[in-house]
Automatic annotation (TrEMBL):
Gene3D superfamilies: GntR ligand-binding domain-like (1.20.120.530), Winged helix-like DNA-binding domain superfamily/Winged helix DNA-binding domain (1.10.10.10). It comes from the Bacteria. This is GntR family transcriptional regulator. InterPro entries: GntR_C, TF_FadR/GntR_C, Tscrpt_reg_HTH_GntR, WH-like_DNA-bd_sf, WH_DNA-bd_sf. CDD domains: WHTH_GntR. Pfam families: FCD, GntR. Residues 38-106 form the HTH gntR-type domain. PANTHER family: TRANSCRIPTIONAL REGULATOR, GNTR FAMILY, UXU OPERON TRANSCRIPTIONAL REGULATOR. It comes from Isoptericola cucumis. Signal peptide: none annotated. Keywords: DNA-binding, Transcription, Transcription regulation.
Amino acid sequence: MVNSAPAVGRLALGSDGARAEADGVESTENGARRARPRSLTAQVVEFIEELCLAPGAAPGDRLPSEGELATRFGVSRVVLREAMKSLEARGLVERRQGKAAVIASPNALPVENFVALAVLRDRRALLEFTEIRTALEVHGARLAARRVAGPDRDDAHEHLARARAAVDELLADPADMPTRLRTDLAFHQAVAAASGNASLAQILDALERTLAGSRRESHRRYLATGADPAGSAAEHEELLEAVLSGDPSRAAAAMEEHLHVTMQEIETRPQGTDS
């Protein structure tokens, strides 16, 4: 359990219920600029963030209870819960029903939230994040092939065995939409894991969750063309063989070609089908 605390007592409040320290500015009626005080919630967020990032703090460590934190900072439980909700959304803490909150493991939740909001607001963002996903997956395939040919080959092969299983499952029922979605995701997650770069895999997972609707639309449109549903499995099989060859350049080129088709499909979608 985290016991250390920032060097603060009760929060120093002004007459409007906030500390007289500002994080922004606002305009007055005569056009002058004046400091805007930070909210109590923002202050509590900052202090709990210090707890999570303090030397010696580690993922999985329990934070003090809500009651203890509220007393420590001199705020109501309502304010404390709002702060914890904000920290959870940022991926810094994990809250579990009936249990104390814990420091979260490093994750890409902030990336996921940012991507989701951007895609909702702007159709172009879908293309932009698909381009980012392509760049990451191409590099991931390159790293995976490098590991296949290096001292970490056993670990890489273990992950790529899952990619092989995903291809086999897709071949068994290529026209079933849930199967296509599940196996496509599993394949790409396995290749990313085989790269050995955990941060890359986490960011890709965040992108995949946010772009799940786009992936579904890609598969729907593919099936609507009347093309052989098993063609998707063949494409993934070729990509897997390129990674297993141990040739980073070949693996990167295969992944780039594979995702280029996806990019073209997104670019040609009618308006209103980008969900």
